[in-house]
Amino acid sequence: MSIAVKIALPPLILIVLATLWSPLVVAEVRRIVHPDGRVEFTNVSPSRQQALPSTKKETVYRFRDDRGITSFSNQRPPEADYDVIRFDCYACKVSSTVNWHTTRLFTSPYQNEIQQASRQFEVDPALVRAVIHAESAFNPAALSPKGAQGLMQLMPGTAAELGVANAMDVAENIRGGVNYLARMLHLHDGDIRLATAAYNAGPGAVGRHGGIPPFAETRAYVERVGILHERYRSTLAQLTGH
Length: 242
Known about the structure:
The protein is mostly helical. It has helices at 11-20, 111-121, 125-136, 156-161, 170-187, 192-201, 203-209, 216-240, and strands at 30-33, 39-42, 61-64, 70-73, 82-84.
């Protein structure tokens, strides 16, 4: 005589198990709660996933391992085809070797576009240049695998919300990015560090942590934008005589 036992599992767990099921192997699924409150289910063992992604900007690779199981990791798989599903901005890489105190500044490109947007949304143009530098290093064709677009790396959803029809158009991208930056400044009472942290990690993360989130990438980003902002402000003042 056999006894059938039914176990009621939450729908999310059932979906994860169904996705990971293999005729030969059932992968162990671990539940991970990230510092910003996100919950992730993963089948990548700790030995293969040394450090979990901590912000929306960090690179994550999706691939099939040698058992045919779809896996996710922030370590690029050496012998497997993979898709990149997250991307690190120019100033977000903690191990960056760029000297932010001496790296070349971009004081000339897009003067009209930055000036117009800065006036419209009442944002310091030196801060706008610092954010563009940090996001894309002034590459108007920058396109992340996640979908962030252009100079100020606008996500499609954010661009639509800001009324940006073509995020790859320089003027539209800058207008949308400065609009969003102005909103973050207003939300955080003009605090530039909190506003740039929100630009990077999202205002929700800043709110949940009551300040700059404890993400290494976000903290590096905020520090580097701060350095660039002071340098752009000083250099632009010298160039304009103000």
